[in-house]
Specification:
Elements (H helix, E strand, L loop, with lengths): L1 H12 L6 H12 L13 H48 L4 E4 L3 H12 L4 E5 L2 H10 L5 E3 L5 H6 L7 E4 L4 H14 L4 E5 L6 H6 L4 E3 L1 H14 L1 H12 L6 E6 L21 E7 L2 E4 L11 E7 L1 H13 L3
Parallel strand pairs: 1-2, 1-4, 2-3, 4-5, 5-6
Antiparallel strand pairs: 7-10, 8-9, 8-10
Length: about 325
């Protein structure tokens, strides 16, 4: 508006001798305080008009620059504050899972962890992607950085984490992530994604407890869809059912129950728990009877909701004391 007013004003004050372009030139050099030669003679009213244009123009220009600068700085400060806050939360987390690499595989892992109410931290180098995911999935804690860097894993709380998912698109990076994770926390469980089956053994030697090849899993899934469609349909429905939210879970049995029978766990009081099997060392016991005598280091395999699964875990944990 000031540029328009100034251009027309100088044109009129010159007695329409100068052009509107000359008026625009006069307005610009006045606002920017450049002070080149005057193309419109400044006398009387023209000088008063110039004072008005100078004060209004410089003030407006200063206001625009100040607000633009504040917008940038405020945005950066907000991002920095939010990033530091998430780093503090991640560093203080315990028994959580770290998902390294949020691509096509990583996003499904995150959704499953969120659906089963398991604490987790995301790690990726793409800040825009992380912000987009935080908009889609509320409450996500993420760290921006290279997951193969020890400092990044420390920020993600690797020392107190329960497991690490190395699911970047690069097999070499996944191998280094597994190696770094085991170096920082030897007890942690590492599951790595592998694109080339030739690298499976290398990843295991580097520290990965399990190596998953998506292409191999995809081929097995397609075969199952063809030869056992009812089973596949049942599993798909179980994963998609948000009301019941059933999952197949594993729950370790404390050694305090060793020597007692299965009935002592009182699993029947949990409405949504179905006992499928038990793992005893390297052996499997499917549909175990109630008089089965519990041995040391046995694990229950159950179908349940996340809520009741956590409830059973807490009851068994309490029995350790």
């Amino acid at each position: 508006m000031i540029l328009i007013i100034g251009s027309i004003g100088y044109w009129l004050l010159s007695g329409q001798v100068a052009s509107v372009g000359d008026g625009f030139y006069m307005t610009v050099i006045t606002i920017t305080t450049v002070g080149y030669g005057e193309v419109v003679e400044l006398e009387g009213a023209a000088r008063a008009f110039t004072i008005f244009i100078a004060i209004a123009g410089i003030s407006t220009l200063f206001y625009i620059i100040t607000n633009f600068t504040a917008l940038i700085i405020e945005g950066e400060l907000t991002k920095s504050f939010r990033r530091r806050k998430m780093e503090k939360i991640a560093n203080k987390s315990e028994k959580h899972y770290i998902v390294c690499g949020i691509g096509t595989t990583g996003i499904h892992i995150v959704k499953e962890l969120q659906a089963t109410k398991r604490p987790h931290v995301l790690v990726d180098t793409d800040e825009c992607l992380m912000e987009e995911i935080s908009k889609q999935l509320e409450g996500e804690i993420y760290i921006i950085g290279d997951a193969s860097d020890n400092d990044t894993l420390v920020k993600a709380g690797i020392e107190h984490a329960k497991g690490v998912f190395a699911v970047t698109k690069d097999d070499n990076q996944n191998l280094v992530i597994g190696l770094s994770a085991k170096q920082l926390n030897p007890k942690i469980k590492v599951v790595s994604r592998c694109r080339d089956t030739k690298n499976v053994e290398k990843m295991k030697l580097a520290g990965a407890d399990a190596v998953i090849c998506p292409h191999l899993i995809g081929g097995m899934r397609m075969t199952s869809e063809m030869v056992r469609p009812t089973v596949v349909s049942f599993l798909d429905m179980m994963l998609r059912d948000t009301e019941k939210n059933l999952r197949v879970e594993e729950v370790p049995i404390p050694d305090t129950f060793a020597g007692k029978d299965l009935m002592s766990l009182n699993l029947k009081k949990y409405r949504n728990i179905v006992l499928l099997a038990m793992k005893s060392g390297g052996d499997w016991i499917y549909n175990p009877p109630e008089n089965h005598v519990i041995k040391s280091n046995e694990t229950l395999v159950i179908m349940t909701t996340p809520e009741e699964g956590h409830k059973l875990e807490k009851v068994l944990e309490a029995a350790k004391a």
